[in-house]
UniProtKB/TrEMBL annotation:
Any one GO MF annotation of this record: ribonuclease III activity
CDD domains: RIBOc
Domain of life: Eukaryota
InterPro entries assigned to the protein according to its UniProt record, in alphabetical order: RNase_III_dom, RNase_III_sf
PROSITE patterns: RNASE_3_2
The name this protein goes by in its record: RNase III domain-containing protein
Domain RNase III, chain residue ranges per copy: 56-147
Pfam families, per the entry: Ribonuclease_3
One BP annotation, GO: RNA processing
């Protein structure tokens, strides 16, 4: 996990309970909250017969996921048009990931409304992945019954107050890492390698991932991943990711993250 991602998740977890969330818009369909266990799963290779109707939220969740992703992408672009691709990607991903959607679903009291088989009710309703799916399925029904404008207004009422909090917290982290990468007097990659090979430090390993080119072809960035293993039960293994204009700068950034977190 990158330092930025860890901080972004913490900001969202702290912010959601303080938000004045918009009320859920009433919808007629209850399919959005029906888990596959509620009526029993029937699997088809391509599509069910004309006479069969969906009995769970899976198709709706698929649509809601796409609608949510597009609305959040547009919102980020409209409010912060100068954000670089790497920052946009991180911010969008953390705003729409299952962890965030589970927290929103919980804030709305959705888990207890999920329809499941009686035997699995407790485990399914407390599953963050299911909670996130139900929230996305609700968005799809909201779109189907009330249209795109109502959906957009609902989502923006949630995310417009949340987005500035996230930006304000992440900007210093990105800038500090960028500054560290530009400081030629400090070899962050070398320092990380020294940390891994320190005398008496058994089990420390640093894995360098291959560079991945991202962004537009005329101004590409490079994404680098690093995995740090620590053979110590009190310390977790960690993964870091950085995006920069060159492979060398990206490596310096993730080495900085690894050493500073």
């Amino acid at each position: 996990m990158t330092a930025q991602l860890a901080r972004a998740r913490a900001v969202i977890a702290e912010a959601i309970p303080t938000l004045s969330l918009p009320s859920l818009v009433p919808v007629q369909s209850e399919l959005w909250r029906q888990h596959v266990s509620y009526r029993g799963a029937v699997h088809w290779k391509f599509e069910p017969p004309e006479t069969d109707e969906p009995t769970d939220y899976e198709r709706l969740e698929h649509v809601g996921d796409a609608l949510l992703g597009s609305e959040v992408t547009l919102l980020v672009h409209e409010l912060y048009p100068k954000l670089v691709v790497g920052a946009r990607a991180l911010i969008k991903s953390v705003l729409i990931e299952n962890l965030t959607l589970s927290q929103l679903a919980t804030a709305y009291g959705l888990p207890s409304t999920i329809l499941t088989s009686a035997a699995q009710s407790a485990s399914i309703q407390s599953n963050p992945g299911v909670q996130a799916c139900v929230f996305e399925a609700y968005l799809a029904v909201l779109h189907d019954e009330h249209g795109p404008t109502t959906l957009r207004d609902f989502l923006r009422a949630i995310y417009e107050p949340l987005l500035p909090k996230l930006i304000d917290e992440l900007r210093p982290l990105f800038l500090s890492a960028e500054a560290a990468a530009e400081d030629s007097s400090v070899n962050w990659v070398g320092r990380l390698c020294e940390w891994a090979t320190q005398k008496g430090a058994v089990g420390r390993k640093v894995h360098f991932g291959p560079p991945d080119r991202v962004g537009p072809s005329h101004a590409p960035d490079w994404r680098i991943q690093c995995h740090v293993e620590v053979q110590d039960a009190s310390l977790p293994n960690r993964s870091f990711e950085a995006v920069a204009s060159s492979v060398a700068r990206a490596k310096s950034m993730w080495a900085f993250f690894a050493l500073e977190t």
